[in-house]
Amino acid sequence: xxxxxxxxxxxxxxxxxxxxxxxxxxxxxxxxxxxxxxxxxxxxxxxxxxxxxxxxxxxxxxxxxxxxxxxxxxxxxxxxxxxxxxxxxxxxxxxxxxxxxxxxxxxxxxxxxxxxxxxxxxxxxxxxxxxxxxxxxxxxxxxxxxxxxxxxxxxxxxxxxxxxxxxxxxxxxxxxxxxxxxxxxxxxxxxxxxxxxxxxxxxxxxxxxxxxxxxxxxxxxxxxxxxxxxxxxxxxxxxxxxxxxxxxxxxxxxxxxxxxxxxxxxxxxxx
Length: 271
Fold this sequence. Notes:
Blueprint: H1 12-21, E1 25-29, H2 33-42, E2 46-49, H3 53-56, H4 68-80, E3 86-90, H5 100-114, E4 118-122, H6 128-136, E5 141-146, H7 152-155, H8 165-181, E6 185-189, H9 193-202, E7 207-210, E8 218-221, H10 223-226, H11 244-260
Parallel strand pairs: 1-2, 1-8, 2-3, 3-4, 4-5, 5-6, 6-7, 7-8
Helix pairs in contact: 2-4, 4-5, 5-6, 6-8, 8-9
């Protein structure tokens, strides 16, 4: 009898069932094979190849510069490291805003070239037709409302959204609209917990919060933030579970010292 553990792949249906059962969904970002493999083996439910790689990996101030080719390149690496987790890919800025057909074509390209499980699109009512077209072709779409980083130049800041009654109403309507358009889940970013709770109760699809409080069906963070690697960015909603930037710096300094003092490599480390 085989003792090998059966690996169950997380799908859109898995996430839907988790919401129905009241089981929280845990998600993180990944941009490379090694990180993806570690997170997958740890039991993460889904990985987002986020356009945040523009900030964390490329050093840009916004998510806008990252391209389709770059998103596809990183997603290929991530999917090779995953056995269980679902892989969701951000559609980058200007890959779907030009037209419904452009969004449809680029979503298809991502799925065909990367082996990902779904794409993610920022926006509410304005992208509803795009979501409809993409999902009609059998491509799962995760929506994203509230603070949408690709619209930073329009918003002018990364402040909390939905604080006014008018803006909260608009975000709520956006969430309802993307579900009707066919999205299988929706990210709620940087909105009041009370509003996120109202949206979560109104939707049959899972809500994934980032800075949206405890009532969402799941939570997502940027892995570099959680691990204390990206020290320049420290928003209130991030809980740091490690301080790896400090640990890595110490390790490198120890290595440099050993090389300079000729204690590395030792005889046992030589051929």
